[in-house]
Amino acid sequence: MSTPWEQLISSTMTPTTAVAVKLAVTDEPPEPTDPNDTVLPGGSAGGSGSSGGIFGTLHRHIPILSRLSLNKTDKAPCRYRQPRFSSRRQYRRVVFKHGECNVVQGKVAKRRRKYLQDIFTTLVDAQWRWTLLVFSMNFMLSWLGFAIVWWLIALNHGDLDVSVRNNNSTWEPCVREMYSFTSCFLFSVETQHTIGYGSKHTTEECPEAIFIMCLQSIVGVMIQAFMVGVVFAKLSRPKKRTQTLLFSRNAVICQRDGILCLMFRVGDMRKSHIIEAHVRAQLIKKKMTIEGELLPFHQQELKVGGDGEEDRIFFIWPTTIVHKITPQSPLYMLSAADFLQEKFEIVVVLEGVIESTGMTTQARSSYLPNEILWGHRFETLVSFKKETGEHEVDYSLFNNTYVVDTPLCSAHDLKKLISLRAHTEMHLMQPLDHSTNYSDPSDSTSGSKAFKHRGEYHDKQLSTSDLMMAQLEPFLIKPGELPGPESFL
């Protein structure tokens, strides 16, 4: 008979460090043994080490842990810390934590031709090493190409023949001081960039030389303008602005005004603000339609905002974004235990206009189920300093959370429990039935009957209240009962 821990580990991709502690192991697991049939330390014969509970299960499922623990006699730690970033192999992320999309386009017909048709965007999106290579090769090839043209002109006119130049005193070259291909290359560089050292220059002898000089000047300006535009576009891309836009490492679920809410935090490190900032969130999950069609990456919009209603925020300091788990939310039927088995990804997007450049930027991040802390709340990080008269933001508390009392049930079940409690309270507050006979107090018989009837009614009130609290008790938790960065197993 397998334990609940073993069933959970074998049936879900969620790490064991994110399993709710409400799952208790009641049966005693067998003693772990190594491949040589040797009882490992921590078994029933060796004390209460790592044989029971989650550590015993890990030893049985991961043999390397058993071998590594042969020489360890100290107690297993009872605290854990969730991993900061998830492994790419373990989770099929659509968007990584730093905002890059985990999408690769494959088998695209005529990709190279289409990329060359939009060469400017291709160079802007390319890595810096390829952009600098194209930048250098454009100038080198243009210098070399026009150097060959100048060499052909000089060769055709006889400028490179020393005997013709020495025997004819009236002879006029196309380009003065040009004696070899090296001279032609230097003249090409001087012409394209209008350097003009003074020794080499064209004459009126060759019209074709004058035409080539004008053509090279035009081509040189066009190449320089194109490459400078590419470099400037890469340096001023709004994508770099997203490096200073922060998303909290984890999202949390807790109650706000009596409603279960999914919350995450966004922040901006720069003093120049994001204008018209608004936030979006989408839940990506596998879905089966009524017709039987499987949608592996179905996207469903989540209504988010600073107050859970309006997506536009006044983004002057770190803001907590709220999604109210209402009947319209896809998280409405999920409880804390369901989060351990569900496989989905919540992609969050922050968009706005950069105040200093006027360009639109977009920052992205995502949260997996094991990165959502149930029963946690973000710490306050904005405080007012009387000494300076300024509001100070402490970014060391940006990812900090603390545990709060939160029901473990889903928002749907919580609404039913609240309705049940309201109905019970209304029933308890109803007046006594009018048919109750209150006789004269002097009549001892009638008085005793009325007192007995009121006593029975009071006992009924107490029993109903106790029943309601007994129904609510399994759904209430206390700090430390949920997994988190500082929780106990």
Give a short overview:
With 489 residues, the protein is an alpha+beta fold.
Name a few traits of the molecule.
single chain, 489 residues, alpha+beta, Helix Hairpins, Immunoglobulin-like, five-stranded mixed β-sheet, four-stranded antiparallel β-sheet, disordered N terminus, disordered C terminus, transmembrane helix, membrane
Unreliably modeled segments: 1-55, 63-89, 432-442, 478-489
Q: Find the count of extended strands (DSSP E, 2+ residues).
A: 13
CATH class of the domain at 241-411: Mainly Beta
Q: Please compute the radius of gyration using only Cα atoms.
A: 38 Å
Strand content: 15-25%
> Share of helix among residues?
25-40%
- The outline comes out as elongated
CATH topology of the domain at 241-411: Immunoglobulin-like
- CATH architecture annotation name of the domain at 241-411: Sandwich
What is the H/E string?
HHHHHHHHHEEEEEEEEEEEEEHH
Q: Cα distance, first to last residue?
A: 23 Å
Major beta sheet, specifics? 5 strands, mixed
Structural class: alpha+beta
Number of helices: 11
Mean pLDDT: 76
* CATH homologous superfamily (4th level) name of the domain at 241-411: G protein-activated inward rectifier potassium channel 1
Overview of this structure, please?
Among the domains are: 125-236, Orthogonal Bundle (Helix Hairpins); 241-411, G protein-activated inward rectifier potassium channel 1 (Immunoglobulin-like, Sandwich). Helix content is 33%, strand content 17%. The chain has eleven helices and 13 strands. Strands 1, 2, 3, 6 and 9 form a five-stranded mixed beta sheet that branches. α6 (128-157) packs across α8, α6 packs antiparallel against α9 (207-235) and α10 (411-428) runs antiparallel to α11.
